[in-house]
Specification:
By secondary structure, the protein is of the alpha+beta class. The chain has twelve helices and 17 strands. α5 crosses α12.
């Protein structure tokens, strides 16, 4: 979340920068609650001064006794009750203020291009060439179902819409991609983690999914409110929260983690979009990269993390481009983001396959993740970053479409063949 003191001290500037994200972000309730809290705390401080003076008078009157002492005791009791009531009201306002800040998105970085929508996202670079076919390229779902490696009908019977079943070489290719990605990132210095797939409310709040996006999450039903668990929407959540409410000691940064997990999303509000095949599923697999770094090197770390995600596409020989998200397209918790968009010839379009973001201290403040710059120094908030390295299903889609052949078969990229026992292609049985 944003720093409350910074928001109140530089309100107009913070509001201006948030407005770059688009209309509808109103900080006025935060300012009103902050002013109300200030008045309450000021009044409490003044009453405590009166209370101190009243106690001093009591000590004098205690020697004399009589009605004056009784009146002084009653005044002191009323004063104490008033202070308790104001402190309780201040605590309630503090809670309202914290909750209000949880709904406020991160500030765009100064480097983030200004724009209204994804149409304003500049292309940073392009790698490789679009594959050329001497036939009309088909979309991945048609290719995969003809090869017998994708079964959407039985998936719908088992679970409903937006689920899939991969079979045979389809399932093996997905597993090969996961292993290849994890191995590649391990060589880049990332520690592999196998985290829980169910997380608590504090974890979802720490990374910014809650409270604003609760409708997009799958969660368990529990007898007591607050006891529910959430299916992870991305490994970003458990990986980042590994260090929630901790102080990382000097010399431990940077910390680089990667994990494979299934990911679960309701995709609320997206019905009618990307309903074919594997593009937008309620359950999908992803390899995630997370970094914890000192604030002064987080922008450099974003470039490095993005390059690490790109390396997966390059070794697979998949044509892609990198775009930088403008202020109007930026994710809720992100300060700056690069999207990797892979070319899908069957759709004649680029589609996002990875989103690499620098969150600044936004997540660290929500999750209270700090580091100590040097022995004996006061802890500071660190910066967090993450990115898909990559979304496995969409990588499989890109392979099916970019490596398809006229006879319906699909070539296996060279780097994946060792993970598949040397298999070079997928053909219909």
């Amino acid at each position: 979340m944003l720093d409350l003191r910074e928001v109140l001290a530089n309100f107009d500037e913070i509001q201006r920068r948030l407005a770059l994200r688009g209309p509808g972000i109103d900080l006025e309730p935060v300012r009103e609650l902050g002013e109300r809290r200030r008045r309450l705390l000021t009044e409490v401080q003044e009453l405590r001064t009166e209370q101190k003076q009243a106690n001093e008078r009591m000590r004098v009157l205690a020697k004399e006794g009589g009605e004056a002492l009784a009146r002084a005791r009653e005044e002191l009791r009323q004063l104490s009750d008033r202070i308790k009531a104001l402190e309780e009201e201040a605590r309630k306002v503090e809670s309202e203020l914290e909750n209000a800040l949880l709904f406020v998105p991160n500030l765009p970085s100064e480097q983030t291009p200004v724009g209204r929508s994804d149409a304003d996202n500049p292309v940073v670079r392009v790698w490789g060439e679009k594959p050329v076919f001497d036939f009309e390229p088909r979309p991945h779902d048609e290719i995969a179902q003809a090869l017998g490696i994708l079964d959407m009908e039985r998936a719908a019977k088992i679970s409903g819409a937006r689920f899939s079943v991969l079979r045979g070489l389809g399932a093996k290719l997905e597993r090969a991609l996961i292993s290849f990605m994890l191995d590649l990132h391990a060589r880049k210095g990332y520690e592999e983690v196998s985290p829980p797939y169910l997380v608590n409310r504090a974890s979802m709040t720490g990374t910014g999914q809650l409270p604003k996006f609760e409708e997009d999450a799958f969660k368990t039903a529990e007898a007591e409110p607050g006891d529910e668990k959430f299916l992870v929407p991305t490994a970003e959540v458990p990986l980042t929260n590994l260090y929630r409410e901790e102080v990382i000691e000097p010399g431990a940064l940077p910390i680089k983690l990667c994990a494979y997990t299934p990911c679960f999303r309701r995709e609320a509000g997206s019905y009618g979009r990307d309903t074919r095949g594997l593009i937008r599923q309620h359950q999908f697999h992803k390899v995630e990269l997370v970094q914890f770094v000192e604030p002064e090197r987080s922008m450099q770390a974003l470039e490095e993390l993005t390059a690490d995600a790109e390396e997966v596409l390059r070794q697979l020989g998949l044509h892609y481009r990198v775009v930088e998200l403008c202020t109007g397209d930026l994710g809720f918790a992100a300060a700056r983001t690069y999207d990797l968009e892979v070319w899908l010839p069957g759709q004649n379009a680029y589609r996002e396959i990875s989103s690499c973001s620098n969150f600044g201290d936004y997540q660290a403040r929500r999750a209270q993740i700090r580091y100590r710059p040097a022995p004996g120094e006061k802890p500071r908030l660190l910066h967090t970053l993450n990115g898909s390295g990559l979304a496995v299903g969409r990588t499989l889609v890109a392979i099916l479409e970019q490596y398809q052949r006229a006879d319906g078969s699909v070539e296996i990229p060279q780097v994946l063949r060792p993970y598949l026992g040397g298999i070079e292609e997928i053909r219909a049985a």
